[in-house]
Amino acid sequence: MLPVLMFPQFDPVLVHFGPLSVRWYALSYILGIILGITLLRRLVLLAPRAATTEQADDFLTWVTLGVLLGGRLGYILFYQPSYYLTHPLAMLEVWHGGMSFHGGAIGVVAAMWLFTWRYGLNFLAFADRVTVAVPIGLGLGRVANFINGELWGREAPANLPWAMIFPDGGPIPRHPSQLYESLTEGLLLFTILFIASRQRSIRARPGFLAGLFLAGYACARSFCEFFREPDAFLGYLAGGITMGQLLCIPMFAAGIALMIYARRHPPYAGQPVTGPQTSANSPPPAKG
């Protein structure tokens, strides 16, 4: 039998500044958003153009609020509503963790809808560009989960070379499912979306890339849930599925529907290319 790996004792705090501290989890959010916006600046200019680089920069505030508010509210509503109804002040204790990807996704969709409506952009064309960058943050977030020693996997065979014993996971070897998710929901999904985004014929079909992201994430997350230990306060649902898998069902259906919709509608002409680029503080351009 192969020796089982012990979880490295990472400090969840990256650096201290007096009474303040920067945690790896917070860094993953910050870095994911910055890298995502940097990529978005390039993607929106690809023909057919979806926005300007200034508008991509202005979207930073909107997407940050969407991720944080949606992720927190999603966790409260999807995972522990009864607890937070009896402990309302705990809703503000974000330093104790508790963020939901599905809630964050809803928050980002709401932010995109408001942003594109406010500034006269094509919602689906802009969403296509945004979703290509989303797996960057997902992958970094799962690495941060691993560093924190949280959301570990189910019991693994003792002869699995990378089986690991986590500090709060008992004495049994477990799957490092956080890394599985980082590789599938992050690296693999990003690679697929980035390659697809290089094709103008796909970019010209608003909604296709967004649908590919939704369906791809649903498949990756559902697969990884077979190796991830369910939350103790939820356990398994009817039929042995998990809450994560249940939430992925409508996500997958919406993704397939979006791709079909995109293929059946005329190509997108894009935003006007001539003239100075406008920021989100400028009057909205005409829709393409």
UniProtKB/TrEMBL annotation:
A 1,2-diacyl-sn-glycero-3-phospho-(1'-sn-glycerol) binds at residue 142. It is found in: Cell membrane. InterPro entries: Lgt (IPR001640). Keywords: Cell membrane, Membrane, Transferase, Transmembrane, Transmembrane helix. It is a multi-pass membrane protein. The chain crosses the membrane at residues 24-47, 59-79, 99-117, 208-228, 234-261. Pathway: Protein modification; lipoprotein biosynthesis (diacylglyceryl transfer). It holds the Pfam family LGT. Its EC number is 2.5.1.145. One of its GO terms (molecular function) is transferase activity. It comes from the Bacteria. Catalyzes the transfer of the diacylglyceryl group from phosphatidylglycerol to the sulfhydryl group of the N-terminal cysteine of a prolipoprotein, the first step in the formation of mature lipoproteins. Belongs to the Lgt family. PANTHER family: PHOSPHATIDYLGLYCEROL--PROLIPOPROTEIN DIACYLGLYCERYL TRANSFERASE, PROLIPOPROTEIN DIACYLGLYCERYL TRANSFERASE. This is Phosphatidylglycerol--prolipoprotein diacylglyceryl transferase.
